[in-house]
Design goal:
eight-stranded mixed sheet
């Protein structure tokens, strides 16, 4: 099996084919598989500070996520997706580790599908509000506090 590579890029630097593959994985996961018709293209991917992270093998995107920044400097991790055939292979953890290294000391939030809250807890996230329904899927807001600069 070919080795995988992890990439990080701003939107403006994404090759067109990679952008297509990232969006395709997100749509296949959240809109098709999870049957949630929502506007996947929300305008935030193109923000200057947004960073797209993905794992690929032989040019094929296997997993992805994005990091956004709120006006107060809080980082927001979202759109975490792993291709069905690649689930359980550690790609999500690898992406989260890299995303949190990128975020550094900044506080970080995410909206976890409730059944994935334990996964995010492994990275220091805790529930930060009540469970809520989004498109028929239970979610929980989670937060990882900022860390003092060293």
């Amino acid at each position: 099996m070919q080795p995988t590579s992890l990439q990080v890029s701003a939107f403006a630097d994404l090759p067109p084919r990679t952008l297509y593959d990232l969006l395709r994985l997100r749509v296949d996961t959240f809109v098709v598989e999870q049957e949630c018709p929502y506007p996947e293209l929300d305008g935030r991917d193109v923000e200057p500070d947004a960073r797209h992270l993905w794992i690929s093998r032989d040019g094929a995107v296997l997993a992805c996520l994005r990091v956004l920044y709120e006006p107060d400097g809080t980082a927001r991790i979202g759109r975490v997706a792993v291709a069905p055939a690649e689930r359980g292979g550690g790609h999500g953890a690898r992406l989260m580790t890299e995303a949190l290294a990128l975020v550094g000391a900044a506080p970080c939030v995410l909206s976890a599908q409730s059944h994935q809250a334990g996964f995010y807890a492994r990275f220091g996230f805790t529930a930060d509000g009540p469970e809520y329904d989004e498109d028929g899927i239970p979610h929980v807001p989670m937060r990882r506090p900022g860390r003092p600069a060293r």
